[in-house]
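This section describes the prediction task in plain terms. A model, or a person checking by hand, is given the sequence of a single protein chain and must write out its three-dimensional structure as a string of tokens. No templates, partner chains or ligands are provided. The sample shown here is typical of the held-out split.
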Amino acid sequence: MKLKTIDIESFEEAFGEKTSEFVRDKILSYDFSYQEVSKDEKEKLVLSIIKKIDSGLSRSGEHRLNEWNKGWAENRNQLEEDLSFESLIPKYFGKLPYVRWKQEFIRPTSDNFEYNMVQALQYWLFEKFFSSVESIYEFGCGTSHNLFRAAQTNPDAEIWGLDWAASSQETISLINKNLNLNFNSHKFDFFNIDEQFKLNKNSGVYTFAALEQVGESHKDFINYLLDQNPEVCLHVEPIAEMIDENNLNDYLSIQYFKGRNYLSSFYDYLLDLESEDKIEILMSKPSFIGSQYINGYSSVAWRPKNV
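The expected answer:
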């Protein structure tokens, strides 16, 4: 079957706007070639996803702290061995043969395809929302691989990585020591909010596939952010309210969210806050990129309103 590729124009169509030369150069540096999926292949894939959901999925939540601490420790140990950025890429990327693009399944030729789509999305969003802030905070930073792109899009910003796993803070210490960077770290647990941790003025906040782990327990964190009054908050997460339940592939994604106890009623809560004139939603849209099981990279940006 003939190979296709996702080009600049296709990404810009998905983003809904033209990109800068910086973002275009990043996108052009990645291999986005893929094969379309035949009807028979798609039917088998959809059936396998339904069976996966019906078989019972491990549920996210507070009980999984030790698992995440252990998982991030694997990346920390690999970083100690080879001192490379690649050692920080989470192990779940590139494990499955299919990804999602514009509500369809495709078969990429590169194992790095999904991760490169994530990079393209982040470069665009970080440049769009964080170019003029003085500090950038990632809550739920894991291995800290996303922080590198935040630092590249705003080299003058103070960069913070926060996570509930101790191995995450250990990884940041190794990054600073061996990769000539100066990331700041702090332990932060979405289930037990540290009200004493204060954000700097003129700051930007983001989560990336991190709030997905809290299910319905997101209000305390959003209320914490309201009190901290950052310039902008960005969330790239599996948000069921923002994808199309009348599309088969998106519907399966939503069912997977439910099975895994992923983020729930999050966007609805932001809409409630906006209706109360407490926040302004700056952007909300699905990204049209995803993994084999989920359309999990919907984006919403907002800011607190001083009223």
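For orientation: The longest strand covers residues 279-285.
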